[in-house]
Specification:
By secondary structure, the protein is an alpha+beta fold. It has three helices and seven strands, in the order ββββαβββαα.
Length: 157
C-alpha cells in the first residue's frame, strides 16, 4: 500500500448494476442525515486486512451485500483531505487515501441499507454517468472523475 502520512487507508467501490454491460448505471447512496451526501460505498482498511477483504467487508456493512464480481482495480491510491470543518472531529487523520474497485452486482444480490446495526446510508439509486456527477458530493467528484475516466479509457465503461 502506498504510504501517506496522516491519511487513513480506505477502499471505495464503484458499484454497477447486475445489468452491466448491457446497461451501465452506477449505484450512489445517500449518507444518513446528509441531503447532498451522495457517494459510492467506501470504508477504512483495518490493520492487517487486504484491500479486497476490506472492500468485501465494507460492502456487506454499508449496502447489505458483498455479492459482487470485481471487474477492475484502479492502479493507484488517491488521497483527499477532509473538509476543514471536520478535521479532528471525525478522525485523527488529515484525510483518506483510497483504493478504488469497479464491481458489478451479481444477479442474486439483495441490497439492504439497514442490514448493519448502524446504517451509514438511508437511500440509494442507480444513475447514469451525467447524473452521477451532478448528484455526487462535491468533495468526491474530482476523485470519481479521475477513476471513471480511467475505466472508460481502459474500455471497462
Amino acid at each position: 500500500m502506498q504510504k501517506h502520512t496522516g491519511y487513513r487507508p480506505n477502499v471505495a467501490a464503484i458499484v454497477l448494476s447486475s445489468e452491466y454491460p448491457n446497461k451501465c448505471v452506477f449505484m450512489l447512496s445517500r449518507r444518513n442525515g446528509m441531503k447532498r451526501g451522495w457517494q459510492f460505498p467506501q470504508g477504512g482498511i483495518d490493520d492487517g486486512e487486504s484491500a479486497v477483504n476490506a472492500l468485501m467487508r465494507e460492502l456487506k456493512e454499508e449496502i447489505g451485500t458483498n455479492e459482487v464480481e470485481i471487474l477492475a482495480e484502479y492502479p493507484e491510491w488517491i488521497s483527499y483531505d477532509f473538509p476543514q470543518s471536520t478535521k479532528g472531529h471525525l478522525y485523527p487523520f488529515r484525510g483518506q487515501t483510497q483504493k478504488y474497485f469497479l464491481v458489478r452486482l451479481r444477479s442474486n444480490a439483495k441490497i439492504d441499507l439497514f442490514a448493519h446495526e448502524v446504517p451509514e446510508f438511508e437511500e440509494y439509486r442507480f444513475v447514469g454517468l451525467d447524473e452521477l456527477f451532478k448528484r455526487a458530493t462535491f468533495l468526491k467528484r474530482r476523485s470519481y472523475r479521475r477513476v471513471i475516466d480511467y475505466f472508460i479509457k481502459e474500455g471497462m465503461l
